[in-house]
Task: structure prediction
Amino acid sequence: MIEEIFRAEWGRVVASLVGFCRDVDVAEEAAQEAFALATRRWARDGLPDEPRAWLVTVGRNKAIDRLRRERRHAEKLQLLPPPAETPMPATAIPDERLELIFLCCHPALAPEARVALTLRALGGLTTAEIGRAFLVSEETMKRRLTRARTKIKGAGVPFAVPNEDLLPARLGTVLAVLYLIFNQGYGDQRVDLAAEAIHLGRMLVELLPDEPEPSALLALMLLHDARRDARTRDGELVLLADQDRSHWNTAQIEEGRSLLRDTRGPYAVQAAIAALQTEDPIDWAGVADLYATLRELTGSAVVELNRAVAVAETSGPRAALAVVDAVAVDLDGYRYLHSTRAELLRRLGDEAGARTAYRRALELTTTDAERRFLERRLAACGSSGRSGRDGPEM
Result:
């Protein structure tokens, strides 16, 4: 129960503390101390009536304690009014977590630093988890976060909610953050993170109704999340082709489709692909064409890897393998590169090559469900025939 509350409330508590002290570092540390104290107190005394309010109050006191200890923050401390008298200023943004995203997406920071800071502060992701999202090592991501925080302090980057007319300028990074949070939840079976991203996506659509990409991102997340209950069976991953469609959330699929307005932006193209993948039969040629469009828009090697899956369905595994091998150097640290390559090699009858690729994917995977799936594929390699239905889409 305590762990569930922590997962659900981390982002709100940090967002509230950032609004209070205007310092992400201080807010994160104060939140960590509040959650640590809660672990001890709640286990002994039981849950308080309002856990979030308890955490915010304790966190604010911890933040004040830290600022008092640090001489360089003495002036800032004097400016801080008592917690009970410091309501957040009214803004156009309807949720403190969404405010935190816009705060962290300050244009003075590099785009990757904005996303990483937000994932750390809002999602409570570890440095290793953020590194995996960016396909870099934990040490590399640690250095990036340190540089970003140093720049914030050294340059005096103000942590204040931007005026309403400045929101569209930060929109691109905000959308990237939301989608990374969703993907982290979807890929690692963290339902709370995926639900949080969808919830914030809905508010973003309400906040910026004339911007097409927020609607497209919400559609994309809904269409993926609609298949969540069918992605696992008895705790094991199930590939797209083998999923029980009766377990798909048809209401989410319909809502996602209704949000599709055009296919010009990158999220709109991805949403269109996700929509095609909910059809029966799937229009794989259409999926491949849309991935080609997306590749032109983004230049992403991951997009090209995904296109290989559609190419396998339309032109066969050998053509798809050529696409995969073309991006292998760029994505060597990406587990899906190796799992996709393994599947294609297996379908081509190269079982030795498939086993090598499965082992490499196993080295990189981070979830138990994916590990068990890959271990089954590796064990079956050489002992089963080919299956034209098999593919890496999940």
